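Chapter summary example.
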Amino acid sequence: MTIDLNADLGEGFGAWKLGDDDALLEIVTSANVACGFHAGDPLTIRRVCEAAVARGVAIGAQVSYRDLAGFGRREMDVPAEELRAEILYQLAAVDGIARAVGGRVTYVKPHGALYNRVVWDPVQARAVVDAVTDYGPLPVLTLPGSAVHGLGAPTVAECFADRAYTPEGTLVSRREPGAVLHDPGEVAARAVRMARDGLVTAVDGSEVRVVARSICVHGDTPGSVGLARAVRDALADAGVTVEAFA
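The structure predicted for these 246 residues follows.
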């Protein structure tokens, strides 16, 4: 059994810091680097990319809606042509910085509201895929069953150790209580079960099938370093090999 462990990194902005990028880069195998539209700035992007290259961590471009004030988590209706160009802009920027420090972007992951939107909206999903295809044949990291699948770009399914699931296999809205999980033991146990058995218990107690190649722990979740370490250690104890998919 092999699984990737990814986290959202570089989500500070200027003087404002969010999460512990350096500590998480010692644990994860893939780094979803904020591209500046929901968080991140050129210096932060460079620092995270340099640190990822030094540790052998895969670099992904975490593209989003242009929504710094809302951290990319507000629903937005962006015309497909505009969204395609904005995704391409973000991807090219982070890849350019990554290449300047000896690495490269190896995958793309939508963030926040865009991530959830492309699960069910084929128009927005097509805009993301078209942007990625414009740039090159990079895999898109997304939920199983997302509308992104089958549109022409390679895809990699992921699951979430620190998020609650609906019976339909989507993520519970952050506006709902209990949407984000904080107990390291619970989060680690869920990660092992998803990696080994492809199952997670939804909020109504039903069992949901989640066959994924990558597990996410959010870098902005309080205690994210402890959660990520608990997940990594539990996977190793369960005989699951943790390595990047790209």
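To summarize the output: Strands lie at 2-9, 30-34, 58-63, 105-110, 140-142, 155-160, 199-201, 207-209, 214-217, 241-242.
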